[in-house]
């Protein structure tokens, strides 16, 4: 009797050990592979921005009477207000890359780039929360940045709406919709990053040129 009881206990122990070993091996067989490290990227524009700034400074250096310009932080379009790097493979569906992100919301990363580009061109820029009175306010809204795998090669689309508001009297001096499309040098997330920086550089140049036109206009018909 004791021998049979001992054998039964031994058998149960063997079964439990077997199930435990199977569970451990099962975890390694069927669990997903270790996650790839998340890579983060920035929007900086590119060297062509500095070249264009030098061109603008030489051609149209603002005078001492240039108005002060308040530049709030740009606002993102709905669905694009996170640091996720967005791609599109078919119309109306946006998806985030799993292991590639921006260091911040693209709209927020635009703010220092806009300020630096305008200041380098001679504009007198004021940033919130400064209480210094300003003559104009530049609102940049509905910022969209996405990598599109609909065409070959893939493309990055950048969109933004700029509105120049005169403070006193309160009125809209001009509105401009910017749509910039850049081919990606490679059909992968990093290719999208390169194209995104090129698109931002183009946006900064176009924004600066547009502001110059608005400031030079009488304001009777806008810009």
Brief rundown of the structure:
This protein is an alpha/beta fold and 223 residues long. The protein is built from four helices and eight strands. Strands 1, 2, 3, 4, 5, 6, 7 and 8 form an eight-stranded mixed beta sheet that branches.
Characteristics:
alpha/beta, 223 residues
Helices and strands in order:
Layout: H1 2-30, E1 39-41, H2 47-59, E2 68-70, E3 84-90, E4 93-102, H3 106-120, E5 124-126, E6 136-148, E7 155-166, E8 171-183, H4 189-216
Parallel strand pairs: 1-4, 2-5, 2-6, 3-6
Antiparallel strand pairs: 3-4, 6-7, 7-8
Helix pairs in contact: 2-4, 3-4
Helix-strand pattern = HEHEEEHEEEEH
Q: Average pLDDT, to the nearest integer?
A: 83
Q: Give the helix tally.
A: 4
Largest sheet: 8 strands, mixed
Stretches where pLDDT is under 50 for at least 5 consecutive residues are: 14-33
Query: How many strand units?
Result: 8
SSE class: alpha/beta
State the shape: elongated
